[in-house]
Structure formats: structure tokens, C-alpha cells
């Protein structure tokens, strides 16, 4: 169970079909996964990538009122990288469009700090590995965010 009594989407809970959201008709985020590593568990890693992508979208929605429209998570060795696209709120978009990109970046860094514990907990729950570092940033033009999590090396576990 994630913070806020949320649970991960899983095989026993299929995703709902895309539905218009109350924030102007946006649909669910398009989720793609990349997973590779030397352990030969490509299917499990693909499922983990999907669960992390969906979980981070849910965290963004919970904290910001909307989530990104595209997300991709890659897991390799001791690193998880999630790239999110089109996640700015309407207010942030307006500020960006009025030339206040550095202000939007500063606000978003604060939000990403506030979401950090939930993102760490999500990745630790999905992968059953300790997160030792979360690096998070956002670029308003174009609208991309990245969440990079470094995991405790397998040999140290």
C-alpha cells in the first residue's frame, strides 16, 4: 500500500479505460516501459516499469491535481529513470507562457521535493530494493520532468 492508502495497479486490478478528466478532458497517461538488466527477468522488469510509471502518474495527480500525459520508466541495474511529459498545471503553463520559466522551475522543484517520499516508497515497494538517492528535475519548455532513483547495489543487500 502506498502513502495515502493508495495501492498499485496490478494484474488483478486492470487499468480503467481512458476517461476524460475534469481538468479539460485529458485522458490517462500513455505509459511505456523499458527494462533491461543482466538477471534475465525481462517480463518482471517490464511489469515493474509499468507499475512505477503508473504509480508516479498517480502521485503527480494526487499532489498537483493532474498527471503527465506521457511517461516512460527504464530500469537498469541499480538505476530507475522515469521521464514524464506534459505535466504542467494550467497555472504553471500560464506562467511559462508569460516568460516566467525560472519561477515555474523553482515551484516545480518544491513540488518534486514534496512528492519525493511517495516516489521513493513506490519504487521500494515495487522493486523490493532500498532507494539510496532520488534526483528530480523539471524543464518547462518543452514540458519534461525526470525522476532518477539510485538503488542500493545488489551486492550490498
Low-pLDDT stretches: 9-27, 35-40
Number of helices: 3
For the largest beta sheet, what order do the strands appear in spatially? 1-2-3-5-4
Helix content: 25-40%
* Cα radius of gyration in angstroms: 16 Å
Large-scale geometry: elongated
Mean pLDDT: 82
Model description:
- This protein is α+β, with helices and mostly antiparallel strands and 157 residues long.
- The protein has helices spanning 42-64, 90-97, 101-127, and strands at residues 30-36, 70-76, 79-85, 131-139, 144-151.
- A five-stranded mixed β-sheet has the order 1-2-3-5-4.
- A hairpin with a 2-residue loop joins strand 2 and strand 3.
- Helix 1 packs across helix 3.
- The longest helix is centred in the last third of the chain and has 27 residues, at 101-127.
Amino acid at each position: 500500500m502506498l502513502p495515502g492508502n493508495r495501492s498499485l495497479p496490478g494484474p488483478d486490478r486492470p487499468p480503467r479505460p481512458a476517461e476524460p478528466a475534469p481538468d479539460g478532458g485529458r485522458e490517462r497517461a500513455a505509459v511505456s516501459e523499458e527494462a533491461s538488466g543482466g538477471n534475465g527477468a525481462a517480463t518482471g522488469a517490464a511489469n515493474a516499469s509499468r507499475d512505477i510509471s503508473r504509480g508516479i502518474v498517480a502521485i503527480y495527480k494526487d499532489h498537483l491535481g493532474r498527471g503527465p500525459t506521457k511517461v516512460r520508466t527504464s530500469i537498469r541495474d541499480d538505476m530507475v529513470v522515469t521521464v514524464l511529459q506534459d505535466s504542467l498545471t494550467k497555472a504553471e503553463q500560464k506562467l511559462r507562457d508569460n516568460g516566467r520559466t525560472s519561477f515555474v522551475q523553482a515551484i516545480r522543484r518544491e513540488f518534486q521535493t514534496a512528492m519525493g517520499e511517495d516516489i521513493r516508497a513506490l519504487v521500494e515497494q515495487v522493486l523490493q530494493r532500498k532507494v539510496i538517492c532520488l534526483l528530480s528535475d523539471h524543464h518547462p519548455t518543452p514540458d519534461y520532468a525526470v525522476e532518477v532513483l539510485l538503488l542500493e547495489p545488489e551486492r550490498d543487500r
